[in-house]
Amino acid sequence: MSKKLFMNALSQAGEYNPACGSATSIATMELMDKTGAFFPEANIDAEKMALLAGAGCSELGFDNVMPLFGVWHESAALGCRVDWGEKHRMPDCQHHLCENVGDEIKIPHDFLMRESCQTPLKAIKILKKRFDRDAAVTGKVFGPWTLGYHVYGVENFLIASLLEPDEVKKAMRKLIEVTVAFANAQIDAGADTICLGDHCTRDLCSPDTYRDFLKEIHQELAERIKCPLILHICGDTSDRIRYIAETGVACFHFDSKVPTATARSLAGDKLALMGGTSNYDVIRTGSPEKIAADVLEKVNNKINVIGPECAVPLDAPMENLKILARETKKYRREK
Ligand SMILES: [Zn+2]
Known about the structure:
Shape: globular
Helix content: 40-55%
CATH class: Alpha Beta
Bound molecules: zinc ion
Strand content: 5-15%
CATH architecture: Alpha-Beta Barrel
Largest sheet: 6 strands, parallel
Mean pLDDT: 95
CATH topology: TIM Barrel
Strand order of the largest sheet: 2-3-4-5-6-7
Number of domains: 1
Low-confidence stretches: none
Structural class: alpha/beta
Radius of gyration: 18 Å
Number of strands: 8
């Protein structure tokens, strides 16, 4: 029944009833030991990926499972050379495909068939079968702003957004098709909901840039991706939550840099909220009392899905994630 509870939390159906979960990675070294699914294999082997993601429900007690731990799957399919990480290190990529934003990127016609897209698609299929109604399956894709960083390099892309805004817009129009195709393939594979990550955080993207470059794009993605969309943006987003609330995404996964009460008041009634629990002060180093107090604060502010703000640090203790799930369940109408 967790799946139903999670989906109701995203659509804010019925009375407030908090779910527990995450749109981003819950992979930790301890969970890897527990499941025997380690990086890099858990990023490149569908069975291992499903095993580690499934532990989010079976070990931690979360109401959803999400198998795309890094940020690089679709970028690898476009041609970026990705290092898939190790037990103690998240996947990374130092290589970008193009130097100039004006250079046209070619989207390979078979990019969905490439290994780095096929692995998570197969993992989603396995998770769907394995968890059925016991957990919602959340897929993950990146928006064209993040894909722009990956393809052109962060610095090149940001400079171009100031000097050649039309080229940036053109590149984003091209890259949006990658986001939509990968998302819809994940839905076909069994994803109930999709996390849309777009790293347009305040230090890299001003509120005006969000309004001018991204709001419409996120609006379009909410329309074209046929399941409830969870937008994830790290950092302080308080200057753009009101724009996000107008995009039509179902839910916003927010960072603890936005105070919980501020996030709720800016989001209004229509936008569901998820996350907001600090990975460093609460998940990684918090005492049981601190975690309980954080959950209560989230409940008091009607945060719909309670969970970590972003990818859980690899060295976070599993016990703290379990406490977070247990505390959330205390506030449920049906236990
Ligand atoms: Zn994040």
